[in-house]
Amino acid sequence: MALWGAWGVLSKPLSNQLSAWQVQSLSTIGLVPVIIWLARAPRLTQGTKVRCGFWQAFAAGGIASAGNVACYQALAVGGNAASVIPFTSLYPLVTVLLAVGLLGERLNRYQLGGIGASLIALYLLNVGADAASPLTPWLGVALIPVLLWGVSALLQKIATTHGSPELVTLAFLMGFLPLGAVTPAFQSFEWNLAPRTWFLLIALGFFFALGNLTLIHAYGRGGRASVVTPLASLYSIVTIPIAIFLLGERPGPREGLGILVALAAIAGLAIESPAAPPAPASPGPNQNR
Fold it and tell me: Band of the pLDDT at 135, cuts 50, 70, 90?
């Protein structure tokens, strides 16, 4: 939660200096140390369908990297980190709805409440809207990462049923590399950057990757998904105060209420129903005696 919160804060100043494509491409350098560490994990090849799980997670990473570009663009067109990050954190809404439609999962009361709160947050964060422009400039762009990250999370969810958490995370992070590698071919880049900018770019990718790695360790140390997942999804509570005090952002009353409602929605959407206990086995012939 702390690492992803820091990622959200660093995204704003970098998006003001560089294009969204350049931020995403160059920040992938920070993923490399974590990728190397995961490649040496002893449980890497464990799983029922390792190859299938790898490619599903790899695709999830590619989709998420495109979502990151849209998130940085939302910040670049004027969105505050204190508003954009909690709004884009509503991506579990897409994941939950897709899981219902494609995987046959059922919504619990918390997720139903989260859906309702998401719609309220969408309205409240539409600050400054008027008849000529139904959406604020950043809100329309911010809907793209909500959709893409939601699809990506569903693929990750499916991939974890086929491969180990280490494999899924490794493949997910590797999925960011192709976009980072090909972006300089179709985007003009400014390579003569200040050392501070390079440091922030590498830190941006490193915090993002290390957040995924520490999430694995939280599960591995016995953390329940119903507790760990909501906590990790609430990284906005780290981003918001830092953005207010260090970046000088000042959300208005309506926007502030929208942020609080968005945080409540994230918590509700992230709480999954516990798995049903297995049905008791039918008594065998010997047990009927």
Answer: low
